[in-house]
Amino acid sequence: MSPQTGFRETQRRRTRRALLDAALSEMTERSLGSLGLREVTRAAGVAPTAFYRHFRGMDELGTVLVEEALASLDDTVRDVLATTGDAGRRGDAVVQLVAELVRSRPAHVRFLVRERHGGVPAVREAIAGQLDRLAEETAVALGADPVSAGWDAADVTMLSRLLVDHMFMTASAFLAASLRGEDWSAATRTARAQLRLIHLGRAHWPG
Q: Which residues mediate DNA binding here (predicted)?
């Protein structure tokens, strides 16, 4: 790669990142469906025509944000669930994982919470697809756990989806606490208690 080509590639990546960051910033209190392309390019400091060198439209920009927020969770959640220890310790680890995600990417998580049932079909489908993949990875880890011995696949899948929904709900609770100016202690206690209840039911599930 020539120096000139390398420079152009660096600029391309910077512009793409600027557009993604500008969109997240503009969506602090707005939905993707209400955000215009020109607003994003103005906030990013680039010409509107530059947008189309990176994304086909606002829908595609939204799906990229979904992938950024969720794509790396699969392996992490599977590793946490496969960790030795009782259900309480694993539940605490899951809550901590969600807390770290919200702390490190609050704008991404806010976007996911708002757009999961939002007005942009492509983004709704992207979120649903990523959560389905996360549930599949979770089901693999749960199926290997002795507590799930004798369960049929449908029951393991039901449990995995319940846990994924709980993670999403917990992330939303952390965001809401921050908006109210509260710490996360109450939300953390609630999330841990809910997981204990889920795992208590799991231990007595007929399988």
A: 36-55
* pTM, to two decimals: 0.89
CATH number, domain containing residue 162? 1.10.357.10
Q: Cα(139)–Cα(124) distance, rounded to whole angstroms?
A: 22
Q: 3-state SS of the chain?
A: CCHHHHHHHHHHHHHHHHHHHHHHHHCCCCCHHHCCHHHHHHHHCCCHHHHCCCCCCHHHHHHHHHHHHHCCHHHHHHHHHHCCCCHHHHHHHHHHHHHHHHHHCHHHHHHHHHHCCCCCHHHHHHHHHHHHHHHHHHHHHHHCCHHHCCCCHHHHHHHHHHHHHHHHHHHHHHHHHHHCCCCCHHHHHHHHHHHHHHHHHHHCCCC
pLDDT tens digits for range 78-132: 777 766 567 778 888 999 999 999 999 999 999 999 999 999 999 999 999 999 9
Residues sharing a CB contact under 8 Å with residue 167, sequence separation 6 or more, in sequence order: 77, 94, 97, 98
- pLDDT of 7-63, one tens digit each? 788 899 999 999 999 999 999 989 999 999 999 999 999 999 999 999 999 999 999
Domain match, 26 and 124 both? no
Q: Is 106 within 8 Å of 191 (Cβ atoms)?
A: no
| pLDDT tens digits along 186-205 | 999 999 999 999 989 998 88
